[in-house]
Amino acid sequence: MQRILPHLLVLALLLSLPLPAAARVANPDDDRRSPVVRAVEAVSPSVVNITVLKQAQGGGRAPFGDTFFDQFFKEFYGQRQYQAQSLGSGVIIDGEKALVLTNSHVISGSATIAVRLKDGREFKADLVGSDPDFDLAVLRLRGVKEKLPEMAMGDSDDIYIGETAIAIGNPFGYSNTVTTGVISALNRPMKTNQGSFGSFIQTDAAINPGNSGGPLLNIHGELIGINTAIRAQAEGIGFAIPINKAKHVIDELIHTGHVAPIWLGLFGQDIDQPTAHYFRLKNLKGMLVAEVMADTPARAAGLRPGDVVLGFNGQAIQDKNDYMSRLFNITRAEKATLAVLRDGKRFTVSLEPKVLDAASAQALVLSRWGFGLGDNGGRGALVTRITPGSPADKLGLRNGDIIHQIGNRVVGGSSDLINAFLRNRMQNTVIMRVQRGNNLYYVRLSL
Predict the structure, then answer these.
(1) Is the pLDDT of residue 70 over 60?
(2) Could you report the per-residue pLDDT of 26-67, keeping only the tens digit for each?
(3) Fewer CB near the terminus (10 Å): N or C of the chain?
């Protein structure tokens, strides 16, 4: 008995020690398993890491990190092609069809796209469709043999400012990184290279390079947004595309590969003091309707010159640029509800956007700007026609000139004219980059 007692004491001591973490049995009632923990456990298998190889051009870096040597190497060796790698995140939205949603800028210019799941499996991916304005893209994974874990979509119209937000992504290549915060604001406009766009979700959940394309979740583990941008000059300010907006874009990308350009058929102008006095307006807010085109949603809705657009889908309109940003934040599947002031009376109209086709865009550009364009083998658009007395004629454009850019839109061919025209049609002047012979010029088209 005396020999057994020490062994019993040792056994009791060992049993009293805590088990290592790997040996513990998960306890669903553990108070540390907060709603955030449960949400992350449920959805993290459907968050993916995206690696993109791109063909880039440059002179490379010279040794020693010296700018003089950099310039020497550039001049001596010239520009050369090399592969650049970028990282991003994505969300599996259809496990059966192996579809992944991410940002357009994540895969822009890609030569190859590789997608890695949390469990380590890696697949090559094909681009189904992409739209740089909405900054969304859909990928399809190759060679998938079984249904993949997918993320449930939530309702981004049912969000409270101040509620918990969860971001998951691959910042700086650290896969499946989780950060939390709150919803800071809704319907935030944000300026991009393509203009000002509205209706972003603002959050203070940490979002860093590599988070782009990853999910923003509520505590139920539902997808409410796609993380898309951070403000480099600020801390704790990130933006996400609302998932309800993304749903319309996803549908078009899957079925057509792109988002169709739309318009309502309105031309408008800002309201200055004399205009406000003439129309007996109390302030300068809104957009004055200057022209309504035939056979357009605006004409069908009964809008006419002299009306003042004060609101767009429940948001106040400050000026024509505000109207344009709201318009380009919807797709053809959505309706546009305008708040309109006429003769001192306010009313609302609901319009279904119309897709602007290439032929209609060409006709509008010819009639309003005064030039026609043709394809030039993907190297800009060739000027093929000038209307006498038009803005293009007064500027001095000639047949044979090549237009490479209109406003902030790069023109790779005549098909790019649609978006370029839509975004610049209400401007008084449009800056264009034009090639004549071997020379490039920036010119100002006055309208």
Answers:
(1) no
(2) 566 677 889 999 999 999 999 999 999 876 555 544 444 444
(3) N
Report how many domains make up the chain. Answer: 4
- Cα distance between residue 264 and residue 335, in whole Å: 10
Clarify whether residues 90 and 63 are in a common domain.
Answer: yes
* Catalytic-labelled residue, pool 89, 104, 130, 135: 135
* Whether residue 415 has pLDDT greater than 70: yes
For 110-146, how does the pLDDT look when each residue is reduced to its tens digit (9 = 90+)? 789 999 999 999 999 999 999 988 999 999 999 999 9
SS (H, E, C) the chain: CCCHHHHHHHHHHHHHCCCCHHHCCCCCCCCCCCHHHHHHHHHHHHEEEEEEEEEEEECCCCHHHCHHHHHHHHHHHCCEEEEEEEEEEEEEEECCCCEEEECHHHHCCEEEEEEECCCCCEEEEEEEEEECCCCEEEEEECCCCCCCCCCCECCCCCCCCCCEEEEEECHHHCCCEEEEEEEEEEEEEEEECCEEEEEEEEECCCCCCCCCCCEEECCCCCEEEEEEEECCCCCCCEEEEEHHHHHHHHHHHHHHCCCCCEECCEEEEECCHHHHHHCCCCCCCCEEEEEECCCCHHHHCCCCCCCEEEEECCEECCCHHHHHHHHCCCCCCCCEEEEEEECCEEEEEEECCEECCHHHHHHHHHHHCCEEEEECCCCCEEEEEECCCCHHHHHCCCCCCEEEEECCEECCCHHHHHHHHHHHCCCCEEEEEEEECCEEEEEEEEC
Q: The domain containing residue 105 runs over which residues?
A: 44-141
Q: Which residue has the tokens 């209109």?
A: 406
Q: Please, which residues have CB within 8 angstroms of residue 206's CB and are 6 or more apart in sequence?
A: 167, 171, 179, 181, 236, 238
Please say if the pLDDT value at position 234 is more than 70.
no
Catalytic hit among 46, 105, 131, 184? 105
Is residue 135 annotated as a catalytic residue, yes or no?
Answer: yes
Residues 364 and 351 in one domain: no
Could you say which of 104, 110, 212, 325 is catalytic?
212
The pLDDT mean for the chain works out to 85
Asked if the structure places residue 27 within a domain, the reply is no
Q: 253 vs 33, which has greater pLDDT? A: 253
Of 301, 329, 355, which residue is a domain's last? 355
Q: Say how far apart CA 69 and CA 142 lie, in whole Å.
A: 44
Percent of the chain with pLDDT over 70: 84
Residue 109, in any domain of the structure: yes
**What residue type is 295 in one-letter code?**
D
